[in-house]
Specification:
The protein has five helices and two strands. By secondary structure, it is of the alpha+beta class. Helix 2 (about 20-30) crosses helix 4.
Length: about 180
């Protein structure tokens, strides 16, 4: 399970790297957490993790707002944030990306292992696994919100993006 902080940090750092202003980036990065709100209904990785459902939500908004460039752009950015969420999830667990077209949940497996001995070599494990997905309520869930590894990665991603804001804030307040 990818942690909430990483689901926020990845789109934030990515969009800031492309020069998106920090307010839109913040909005999109918070919205990228939305697929995990399904836990409030005692399910996880449910229809909120489906590209088909995302398209059903996004396409009408784009059709209605096609003449409003700001709404169209924000909708497209929010879609990118949610897709980043789904991309992170698919590398960590079975995710029903194509539900309801397919009841198969998908997981991508990747690893590159270095074997050291008399002759060093690598083993690549790359694959796509599927399993039938059944929506069902859980009684309880124990999932990390933040782990040491996730915090470290998030800080590496966020600090360069936030440093100019912090520096500018410090300069403004020092000047008063």
């Amino acid at each position: 399970m990818v942690e909430a902080l990483l689901h926020f940090a990845v789109p934030f750092a990515s969009l800031r790297a492309f020069g998106l202003d920090w307010r839109r980036t913040l909005f999109v990065s918070i919205l990228a957490l939305a697929p995990d709100l399904d836990i409030l209904f005692h399910v996880h990785r449910s229809l909120s993790h489906s590209l088909v459902v995302l398209a059903v939500i996004v396409l009408p908004i784009l059709a209605i707002a096609h003449k409003h460039k700001a709404i169209t752009n924000l909708t497209l950015l929010a879609t990118v944030g949610v897709i980043m969420h789904l991309a992170l999830d698919i590398f960590g667990a079975y995710t029903p990306l194509l539900w309801p077209i397919s009841n198969q949940a998908i997981e991508i497996i990747t690893s590159l292992t270095l074997h050291m001995g008399s002759f060093p070599y690598f083993t690549l494990n790359l694959g796509l696994r599927t399993q039938p997905y059944m929506f069902g309520a859980f009684q309880s869930i124990d999932a990390p919100v933040i782990t040491a590894e996730g915090l470290a990665i998030s800080l590496v991603l966020l600090v360069p993006s936030l440093a100019p804001l912090i520096r500018n804030h410090a300069i403004v307040h020092r000047g008063k």
